[in-house]
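batch job 7 of whatever, protein = Helix-turn-helix transcriptional regulator
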Amino acid sequence: MPKTRHELTQPEQVHQLGHAERTPLHTHTRGHLVYPATGVLSLVTKSGSWIAPPNRSVWIPPGFAHQHRAHGATDMRVVFMAPGLVALLPAHPAVLVMTPLARQAVLSLTGPVSRPAGARARLRRVVIDDIVAAPEQPLHLPEPADDRLRAVAHLVAHDMSSPATLAELGHRVGASERTLSRLFQAETGMSFPQWRTQLRIHRALLLLADGVPVIDTAVACGWANPSAFIDIFATLVGQTPGRYQRSIFRQVDEGISDSV
């Protein structure tokens, strides 16, 4: 069973995670924002995963069992929200845009300077007002439960540079293309091509955060045409891969200077 963590005495937290480090499965009684000031952070639940680079944050409502996984050395900042602010955010886990103003407010809340309760409350309100103005980011990758779908997901994830058709994958796992197609829609709410695109984008976010060039990232994630990758990435993430990568390293540099 997930461990319930009590955070009332620690409304803001900072955790340093090493590459591939995972937190235990746990729940919180209060909703909270999780922001990777450096590194990239995955939120994993039984229903799927969300991913956030340093220009995004993850929102986790109260009571959701979850764990975090770091991709690269990750400076994880956690800010718990009062019930009145929770009501302004989605009722489900979500990836949200981290604007420069919201980022500075979170860094101030989780920094070494002690602030009165009233000042912290005002900073939280700044964070919420700024991030709710931007649309929720479609960076959720649903986790299939059916054993055949899980086998397909494993095959796809381990050979993304040479994408097989669903019929070919079905032959390898012992299920028909029609059956798998129906199951993907029923269990994930997506068609197989839509689900695979989300997986590719998740992988691309990690590669770009590691500094892999855009064209190399496109090839590694199964796109034969870099232009198609750029178009799809921009549609789902809200900016081109190059701009996304530049924004990550700019924020990392700012984070280093902020901490000096």
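notes: Strands lie at 3-5, 12-17, 26-28, 32-45, 48-52, 56-60, 67-80, 94-97, 140-142.
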